C-alpha cells in the first residue's frame, strides 16, 4: 500500500512537468496497463512457485526473480546495440518484464502514436498469456507433487 502511495505521489509530481500533458485516453489506459503489469508479475511468481514445488528449495530461482525485477527497473531504451537488442527482445517478448514498468510510464509520458499502440497491445496480451500459462504450469506442478512424508 505504501509503495502505491509513493508511486501516486511521484506521478502527481512528474505529470505537471511534462512538455505535453497526457491525453484522456492515456489516463484511461494507465490503470489498465498497471493492472497488466501486476498480472504479468503475478504470473511469473506463480510459475517460479510451481518450479519450486517440482525442484524443492532452489536458491537460483530466487536469484532469477531478483535479476528479473532489476531488469524491469530501467527504461527499455538502454537495452540497445549488439548486446542490448537481444536482451530487450527477450525481456519484452519471452519474459515480458520490460512491459511491466515501461509501457504504463510511456503512455503517460509520451503521446500515443505508432509503436506505442503495439506496446499497449503487447502488454495486454502478455498479461493474459502470463496468467493462462502460470495456471497451466501450476496445475502441472500440483499433479506431479509428491509429499515429503510419503
Number of domains: 1
Task: State mean pLDDT (0 to 100 scale).
Answer: 88
Rg over CA atoms:
18 Å
Q: Name the poorly predicted regions.
A: none
* Separation of the first and last Cα atoms: 41 Å
* Dominant shape: elongated
Task: Outline the biggest β-sheet.
Answer: none
Strands, total number: 0
Order of helices and strands: HHHHHH
Decide which structural class fits the backbone. Answer: mainly alpha
- Report the sheet-strand fraction: under 5%
Note the total helix count: 6
Helix content class: over 70%
Describe this structure in words.
This protein has one domain. The termini are far apart. It has 150 residues and is mostly helical. α2 runs antiparallel to α5. The model has no long low-confidence stretch (mean pLDDT 88). 77% of the residues lie in helices and 0% in strands. The longest helix has 32 residues. It is built from 6 helices and no strands.
In terms of topology, how is this protein built?
Layout: H1 2-14, H2 24-55, H3 59-72, H4 81-94, H5 97-109, H6 115-144
Helix pairs in contact: 2-5, 2-6, 3-5, 5-6
